[in-house]
Design a protein that fits this description.
The chain has 160 residues and is an alpha/beta fold. It is built from 6 helices and 5 strands. Bound molecules: adenosine-5'-triphosphate (ATP) and magnesium ion. Adenosine-5'-triphosphate binds next to helix 1, strand 4, helix 4 and helix 5.
Length: 160
Amino acid sequence: MKRNAIYPGTFDPITNGHQDLVRRAAGIFDQVIVAIAGNPNKTPMFPLEKRVDLARQVLADLTNVEVVGYSGLTVEFARQHQLSVIVRGLRAVSDFEFEFQLANMSRHLDRDIETVFLTPQEQFTFISSSLIREIAVLGGETREFVHPIVAAELKKQKRS
Ligand SMILES: Nc1ncnc2c1ncn2[C@@H]1O[C@H](COP(=O)(O)OP(=O)(O)OP(=O)(O)O)[C@@H](O)[C@H]1O
Ligand SMILES: [Mg+2]
C-alpha cells in the first residue's frame, strides 16, 4: 500500500526550514502533498496564489512532492485526498504545546489520521516565517533563511 502524507501550513513564505522538512518527508513517504492554507484570519503577507507559486518553484526538483492551496479543515482535505498521515515540524519545545493540541484535535476529528513530527537540521531550528517577514519589512537580508526567489519577493515588502 502506498503511504502518502500531507504537510499543511501557511508557508507565508516557504523558508529553508519548511524545505528541510519537505525533503525529509519526501524521503520517507511515497508522495507528499504540501498543502498551503488560505488562512485569511492570519492576514498573510503573500496571497495564497503567490505562496503556492513560490513553494512550487522552491520544491520543483522533488518529483514526489506536489504543492496545492486549500481552505477549510485540514483533516477534511486529507480525507478527501486519501492522505492518512499529517506531517508537522517541531523546532523547539515552544512548538510542542500547540502541535500536541492540534494533533490530538485532528485525531479526535478523524481517528484514522496520524500526525508525524519531524525535526529540522540544527541550523534551521530558529527559522519561522513570521520572523522572516519581520526582517523583510524592516529592510534586513533574508537570503540566509529562504530560497533566493523568495528573498527577491521579500525585498519588495520593505516598509519605506
Ligand atoms: N524551521 C522550521 N523547522 C521545522 N519545522 C518548521 C519550521 N518552520 C515551520 N515549521 C513547521 O511547519 C509547519 C507549518 O508551519 P507554518 O506554515 O505555520 O510556518 P511558521 O514558520 O510557523 O510560520 P508562522 O511564523 O507564520 O507561524 C508547522 O508544523 C511548523 O512547526
Ligand atoms: Mg507557525
